[in-house]
Every structure is written in C-alpha cells, then in structure tokens.
Amino acid sequence: MNAEQGYLKRKYRCASSARPSVDQLTKNTYAMVLAGGQDCRLQQLTECCAKAAVPFGGKFRIIDFVLSNCMNSGIRHIGVATQYRSQNLIQHIKRGWSFLNGHFSEFVDLLPAQQRVSAGHGYRGTADVLYQNLDILRAHTPEFVLILSGDHVYKMDYGKLLAFHVTNRADMTMACVEVPVSGASAYGVLSVDENSRVVAFSEKPSRPAELPDNPGSSLVNMGIYIFNSRFLFDHLLRDGEDLHSCHDFGKNLIPHMVKNHAVFAQNFKHSCMGKSAEPYWRDIGSIDAYWAANIALTNVTPDLNIYDRLWPIWTRHEQSPPAKFVFDDDGMRGMAIDSLVSGGCIVSGSLVRRSLLFYDVRVDCYSRIEDSVLLPNVDIGRHVVLKKVIVEKNCCIPDGFSAGVDPEEDRRYFYVSPGGVTLVTAAALEKMAEWRA
C-alpha cells in the first residue's frame, strides 16, 4: 500500500467492516468531461457542432446525460473540455447549466483547448486534456478525479463507482460493460480476476478476449475512470514528458498502470440507474445507432426511462407552447401514434407514427411521417411522405416530397446509411432543388 492509499484509507474508513461515506467521496471529486473529440461518423449532424451537442430524445443534447449523472450523483465540481466545432456546445452549457450556485462552489467550467502547456497544437489525446489543465485541477484540490466521455447516453450513479474505488484501495478504477464480442473491437477490452482487479487491457484488439463465464461477450472500457488525484497528476507529468507517447488513456496510460499499479474495474450493472433487463449504455457513433436510440424511446416501455423523477435528465428548457393536433376529418386527421412530440409542434391533418419530433416542428396537411426523427424547427409541407428518415434541424420540406420510400432515388441527393436510414439536410435539399430546376 502506497502513502496515498494509506491516507485515503484513514480518511474514508475503507476497512472491510465499514463503508465509505458516499457524500464525502462525491464532494471531494472533480469531474472532467471530455467533449472535444473529432468524430465524423454522424455525417452532417456534426458538421457544425460537436457530437456531445447533437440533439437527442426530443429535448436534450447528448452531453446532458453525463452532466445529469454528475448532478444526481452529488458531483458539483465539473469541467467540460471542448475543442472541435464547440460553439453550439458552449452555448448550450452556458444557457442550460448556469443554475449551479457558485456561492456553494458548484460549477460547470468550460475548458477549450488553449495551448496552455505546449504551443502549436490543441489537445493531442485524452490524457493531454488533463495534462494541459493540470493547474486548474490542482487549484480545486480534489481527492479524486473522475474522467467521463461527453458523447455517451446512459444513467449511472458515480457515487457507487467511487465507493467501489475506495473500498478496493485502488489507484485507478474504470467502469466496464459487457457487449457482444462481434462489436468489442471498437473499444478497449479488459480482463479481470475474481476480485475485479484488471489483469489485462488491450485497446481496440482485432480478436477481443471473451468472458469465461459468458462466451460470446467481452468486457469493454466505457471511458469512465476514477483516479486518486495525486497518483493521476504524477502519471500525467510522466506521460507529458514522453516524446513517444500518443498521450491517450487507452493507448498509453492504462496499459502502463495495469502492469504496475492497482487498477480495478466495476461492471456497469452495479452502478447503472434504471429498471431495464440489461444496463442501458449507448455510444451513438453512427447514423443507424442515432436513429435506433431515438426511435427506441417511442416503445411502450423503452430501455431508457427519460420520465424517471428519481434520476432526472437536466437540460435547457425551451420556452415553447404545448404540442397541438388539429383537424378531425376523414383523410385529414391530425394525430400521433406511438410517438414522442415535443413542445411547440403543430400536426395539422397528418399522421405521425412511431416517430420522434423535437420542439417547434410543423407538419402540414395530408402528410405521413413514420419511423422518423425530426430535429428542431423543421417545417413539413403538404402531401409529404417520410419513412425511416432523420431530418436535420431548420429544414423546410417542400410539398409532395418523399424520402425513405425509394432508397436508390434517395442516394442521388442524400446520405443513406448501411441500415437504410435516409439523412435529409438543408444543404442537400438546396442541391436537389437546383438539380431539378
């Protein structure tokens, strides 16, 4: 046991006969949310904004889930590191998360890449984000540093993860989740012993290790880490001076720590919030995944409960009037079935089925919207047919338009995903109009 582990054991009473005070743990934790990565897998949805700022679930942004987890877990010292296409994200956090009370040391700090340590580049990797903000981290004197990805959707009690970390006298603890081995190559894959100590770690292996007690599944890294602060600071300094390092947790720091220090992993099922059969965690990294995660919310009992008052999802509330459905004539009846319709929407004499409408969407008469996701401020004309479509925000869909009916025709103008989802954007609509003129 090193000196820092002994200090934490005395402070938080981590003897086997006593449980640590979770309130103490969360109050002494600084959460760093990594929301600046460059990711083009969502196609045009991230052309003008970071992935963490992409709308999700009718009224939220993706980053709202991780920030809400912090709030609900009792962690109120939060930094959000931004870099690529960050203006929308910065505006959302400033307008939607300014309710934290600075008089009680509650805050969400925005930390754009400022070349604070090295000139000529922004953040070079996930570890470099922390390295370049070491002075800020030290100024807050946390006992623990919690590192989070800002572009995943899930509900998790970080207090349970902190308690697990201290009880096991770990230097580092990572959260992990079981996924089918067929998709595990996209993540860091780990193996643990009977005490949950990590004994092997491989970043994006071509042949992921399977779980001995669950063949066909692998244990993968969720991008959620807890460090004893002084331990982390020492390793950030060591890595920052290594000219051969990529300055990345998965590629550099974690493999070194697994070999030389006490690294533990907690299965997500022990800290997830919700009552679904399987722990809900989504890395919305493609158009197909984004569409599926949104449409799944229209299920009678969705795996992700956004109506949970015990673990609410916080966000900026748009000042919109209630949704409205008008006309009740045969062939022109305004109605929505198995759908989520947000405030400010007006559905006039049209059918919406198994779809999700964000706020301020207008649907004119005789249109049919099925299995589709309509982002904010979309205007749908008359006699429009949309099936398995995502419509980008601020689009104006002309009368008689159809998408999702003929994939080959759609591909002439729009991106069509491998799963058959058509992405309709304002820029593509303009080009289509020019070509047809």
Automatic annotation (TrEMBL):
Catalyzed reactions: alpha-D-glucose 1-phosphate + ATP + H(+) = ADP-alpha-D-glucose + diphosphate
Location of the Nucleotidyl transferase domain: 31-298
SUPFAM superfamilies named in the record: Nucleotide-diphospho-sugar transferases (SSF53448), Trimeric LpxA-like enzymes (SSF51161)
Protein name: Glucose-1-phosphate adenylyltransferase
Claim: Nucleotidyltransferase is one of the keywords in the record: yes
Uppermost EC category: transferase
GO terms, biological process: glycogen biosynthetic process
Job description of the protein: Involved in the biosynthesis of ADP-glucose, a building block required for the elongation reactions to produce glycogen. Catalyzes the reaction between ATP and alpha-D-glucose 1-phosphate (G1P) to produce pyrophosphate and ADP-Glc.
NCBIfam families xref list: glgC, PRK00725.1
Keywords noted in UniProt: ATP-binding, Carbohydrate metabolism, Glycogen biosynthesis, Glycogen metabolism, Nucleotide-binding, Nucleotidyltransferase, Transferase
Top-level taxon of origin: Bacteria
GO MF annotation terms: ATP binding; glucose-1-phosphate adenylyltransferase activity
Assembly information from the UniProt record: Homotetramer.
Annotated ranges, domain Glucose-1-phosphate adenylyltransferase/Bifunctional protein GlmU-like C-terminal hexapeptide: 321-424
InterPro entries reported in the protein's UniProt record: ADP-Glc_PPase, GlgC_bac, GlmU/GlgC-like_hexapep, NTP_transferase_dom, Nucleotide-diphossugar_trans, Trimer_LpxA-like_sf
UniProt xrefs under HAMAP family: GlgC (MF_00624)
Documented EC number(s): 2.7.7.27
Listed pathway(s): Glycan biosynthesis; glycogen biosynthesis
Family: Belongs to the bacterial/plant glucose-1-phosphate adenylyltransferase family.
Protein's UniProt keywords contain Secreted: no
Binding site for alpha-D-glucose 1-phosphate: 123, 188, 203-204
Annotated site, Could play a key role in the communication between the regulatory and the substrate sites, chain positions: 83
